[in-house]
Amino acid sequence: MNEYLQDAEIIEEVVPVDKGLRFANFLIDLILFYAVLFTGAISIGVIAAVLGMGNVFEGLEDINPLVDRLFTLLFYACFMAFQEVISGGRSLGKLITGTKVVTSDGYKPEFSVLITRNLSRAVPFDNLSFLGGGTGWHDKWSDTTVVKK
């Protein structure tokens, strides 16, 4: 066992939360993501205008929709990874619902596991992977699950 896991809180019985709670986490995190995205874009636009840089977003309306979607997915994955890395496996949605991410054996995930978990979110249709009977792809590929704290 490495030093990271020696100090980590261990969940004795790993019982994944239900899909309804996972969906609530997703909605809260998605709302926060778009709020941060729009606030950041408005701030950049205002700062650029004040500095006389003109419209820094000019030409973005012509971007390929697939490229736009992939960039947004990647940005969302990085946003989620940042939240979970700095809070030890909890995003805002998980903080509100009283849940957290743990490894399948109940340990606090290491940095590399959280990065893998969240970069897996950038795979198109990852959210739809929860519709089947099992876990979602980003949990399966990172060997993690979400449990009650």
Q: Could you explain how this protein is built, in words?
A:
The longest helix has 32 residues, at 19-50. The protein has one domain. It is elongated. Mean pLDDT is 87; it is low at 1-7. 53% of the residues lie in helices and 7% in strands. The protein has helices at residues 3-6, 19-50, 65-86, 92-97, 111-119, 137-142, and strands at residues 99-103, 144-148. It has 149 residues and is mainly alpha-helical. Strands 1-2 form a two-stranded antiparallel ribbon.
Main sheet record = 2 strands, antiparallel
Number of helices: 6
What structural class results from the helix and strand content?
A: mainly alpha
Task: Tell me the quaternary state.
Answer: single chain
SSE order: HHHHEHHE
Strand content: 5-15%
Number of domains: 1
Poorly predicted residue ranges: 1-7
Shape designation: elongated
Gyration radius, to the nearest Å?
A: 18 Å
User: How many angstroms does the end-to-end distance come to?
Assistant: 22 Å
- DSSP, total strands: 2
Which bin fits the share of residues in helices?
40-55%
Which keywords apply here?
149 residues, two-stranded antiparallel sheet, 6 helices
Describe the structure in brief.
The chain is 53% helix and 7% strand.
